[in-house]
Amino acid sequence: LYRNKPTHHPTISKAEETGIMEKYLKDNNGDPGSSINNKIDGLFFMATPKTTSGQIPDESFFGNYRIMIPPDYLVQGCNLYFADFTCLTGKSHYITLVLTKVNSKEDRYCRYRLVQLDFDDNPFFYKERGVFYVPLAHYLHVEILYTENVDL
């Protein structure tokens, strides 16, 4: 999983000082009717590699600072939820998933509003033979809102 932000983004500046990337309130980006907008805190990570090579893209329009985190570091003790499907100009689609610590405030919020997914059996972010995968398609991007702070 990787997170791109501009180097001047507040989460990056603060993380350089404290060693902790702090979660913040999810804004209205994505589907304006999404039930997680302005309701839960988190940090967005992309999960989609380049379809041509399977590697992480070299550039991102989200910013020039990148942090990469192995999925296993984040998913332990977590629930996974489907939150949003957003179509951008008919050419690109974003799937938003939410990763919450079991019984956290965000988990309790999502439990009654979102569809919970099984890590071993879902089409968006799944584990097979010990490795996490996402679908490879030029038009599909999987992003994960992780609802905890990240200790760098």
Automatic annotation (TrEMBL):
<dbReference type="InterPro" id="IPR045545">
    <property type="entry name" value="PHYIP/PHIPL_C"/>
</dbReference>
<dbReference type="InterPro" id="IPR042868">
    <property type="entry name" value="PHYHIP/PHYHIPL"/>
</dbReference>
<dbReference type="Pfam" id="PF19281">
    <property type="entry name" value="PHYHIP_C"/>
</dbReference>
<protein>
    <recommendedName>
        <fullName>Phytanoyl-CoA hydroxylase-interacting protein-like C-terminal domain-containing protein</fullName>
    </recommendedName>
</protein>
<feature type="domain" description="Phytanoyl-CoA hydroxylase-interacting protein-like C-terminal">
    <location>
        <begin position="2"/>
        <end position="152"/>
    </location>
</feature>
